[in-house]
Amino acid sequence: MDTDRYLDALLSVPVLFGPEVSPDGSWVAWSWSRLGPAADVFAAPIDGSSPPVRLTQTSEGDTMVASWTPSGEAVLVTQDTDGDERERLYRVRLANPGVMEPLTGPGPNYYLRGGQLHPNGRWLVYSANLDAESGEEIEADRLYRQDLENGELLALARPEKGSIPGPELNGPGTHVLYRRNDLDPAGQQVWLVDIEGRGDREILNFGTRAKVSASWFPDGRRVLFVAEAGSHRRVGVWDVDGGEVRWLLDDPGRNVEQAFVPPNGGSVVVVGVEGAGIRASLLDPETGAESAPPPVPGNLVPLARAAGGGWACKHYDARHPVDLIRPDPEGGAPVSLTGLRDRASLDTDRLVAAEDFGWRSVDGLEVQGWLYRSSGAGTIVLVHGGPTSHAEDRFNAEIHYLVSRGFHVLTPNYRGSTGFGLPFQDSIKEDGWGGREQEDIRCGIEALIDAGIAQPGRVGVTGTSYGGYSAWWAITHYTTDLVAAAAPVCGMTDLVVDYHATRPDLRPYSEEMMGGTPEEVPDRYRERSPINSVKDIRGRLLIVQGMQDPNVTPENVDVVVKALGRNGIHYDLLTFEDEGHGIARPWNLKVLYPRLANFFESAFARDRPA
User: Fold this and answer.
1) End-to-end C-alpha distance for the chain, whole angstroms
2) Closest listed residue to residue 24, CA positions, set 76, 93, 70, 88
3) Does any domain span residue 608?
4) Euclidean distance between CA atoms 125 and 176, whole angstroms
5) CA distance 266 to 193
6) Which residue among 76, 156, 460, 599 sits deepest, i.e. has the most Cβ atoms within 10 Å of its Cβ?
7) Residue 596 is part of a domain; what is its CATH number?
8) Which residues contact 445 (CB under 8 A, 6 or more apart)?
9) How far apart, in whole angstroms, are the C-alpha atoms of residue 493 and residue 476?
10) Which of these, 286, 177, 274, lies nearest to 225 by C-alpha position?
11) pLDDT value of residue 606
12) Residue 112's beta-bridge partner residues?
């Protein structure tokens, strides 16, 4: 199979994200991208009694699952325009697929988060950085209850600053659980307010710089939460009536990433990471007894217990695209709830497995990454974004395409990545962006060279968002013997420009990572901005940007292009007018991936000019 046909086959695999189970546990809804111009929402019964239903089919923008309605008869979805992230809420009924009933107004000038329908069918709950009186976008989020009959907006909570990620209405519709970060950018506390906006109060606070996440039990009277505790995360239960906290799991030896209660009740699902792989468990909230989910090779996250026994799970690894499955308790082949294999033309036997690869950084810190081996035409380091995220053993069409073009690919989990414990994740804040996490990446490249896998002068770096920033850092700070080329995608170039141009709710994250605002720590923002080192670029540079990106805005490209011009530095520029933060549309990926491969191939040519 030639590389063009292989790329078509890779991109025929839909990318699944955001699965949500209905309140009664009978259905699961998710978003799939790459089946059309943008992501769309599908749903399927968990018992596998019928094939998936396509609930949306649009070209306007990516459509994501927000929540199920309390009756389980419809799904609330959000949709933006060309990746601008300014989402509008719709309702789509299972009985009437393809019909998107608008719930919020067109052309929003704000960023909306969450979206749940009250049991009375009239009220809608979400957060947005919107001032209801003036209709203007503001810096801080408000928690709103919208009346669908008359359009009235009631502000249930008004933090003075910061964002309200993922507000959650309880099943009875009496209270809303939400998080605030107005005490310190590094922290997060849990608050509770009733549906009339009364009794707004903080219920979970384990320190101004500690993060707490929480969600409802189906009974609507208990809250499951995960709290940072210095060296690890603890899982506990808070009772609405008495206000008591009861700990379910408090083990410094466990790396807990998240925990939740399925919508239809039962065991608490604890999602941990061990050896850079998912290790989920099922925890009885009454007895504390813990059990393992069905044994399936790869990464498995239980979502909800299915009627008649068994679990609906999310499953994936590098050679198995993300799917929703029901494992066979008897050890037989799992059943796909999505019918994924029937939708993709890819021969998975050709896919390369991820190899666990480790090294030590400049200060002796152990760092892990995933290595995908090929014929050795060169090596590409693909840096994950975030940085509060991590590279997984997970199907990635870009990686498999680059491997098919002859490149080794390394995806490093530098300090600051999730999945390796809270101290490792928080260690990036000791230096701030552009600190030792970039040395972690550099040492990974050197380890590949020492192992005879990579060759000097034949290594390139790419990545999106913070991965793009890391690509900028590499090309401005490493020698060409170490990094010959970089292709930053939607990467920050001037951290001061980026701070003021990005979404308001993202600024506290920059403050947390950098130790303050640009006004409070100006030297750090200046020193860690790649734009101030472009004069040192000696390798090849390809800049990639989505022009609708509200996160790392095109202003980052505008200012760096001028700086490159002033310093006489050659570069290539590839922009996409219909993309936001990252390149996602299939026709654009058919342009981007070959362009990246050709760019690195040319940069690694042995007879290239100095």
Assistant:
1) 35
2) 70
3) no
4) 8
5) 26
6) 460
7) 3.40.50.1820
8) 379, 381, 410, 454, 459, 478, 482, 483
9) 11
10) 177
11) 56
12) 128
What pLDDT, on the 0 to 100 scale, is given for residue 573?
98
Domain count, the chain: 1
pLDDT at residue 608, rounded to an integer: 47
Single-letter amino acid, residue 598: N
Is residue 403, in this structure, part of any structural domain at all?
yes
Residues in the chain: 610
Strand partners, 270: 259, 281
- What is the rounded CA–CA span in Å between residue 91 and residue 108? 17
Note whether residue 84 is domain-resident.
no
CA dihedral 489, 494, 497, 498 (to 10 degrees): 40
Crossing angle (nearest 10°) for helices 436-450 and 466-477? 70
Give pLDDT tens digits for 369-407: 999 999 888 999 999 999 999 999 999 999 999 999 999
Residue corresponding to tokens 């549309």: 585
Q: Which two tokens stand for residue 51?
A: 């094939």
pLDDT digits (tens, 9 = 90+) for 311-368: 999 999 999 999 999 988 777 788 899 999 888 888 888 999 999 999 999 999 999 9
What would the DSSP string read from start to end of 144-203? EEEETTT--EEEEE--SSS---S-EE-TTSSEEEEEE--S-TT-BEEEEEETTS-S-EEE
The answer as to whether 506 is a domain residue is yes
Low-confidence ranges of the chain (pLDDT < 70): 1, 606-610
Query: For residue 472, what are the domain limits?
Result: 366-603
State how far the Cα of 115 lies from the Cα of 603, in Å rounded to an integer. 47
Question: 490 and 465 in contact (C-beta within 8 Å)?
Answer: yes
Report residue 533 as tokens: 């080192």
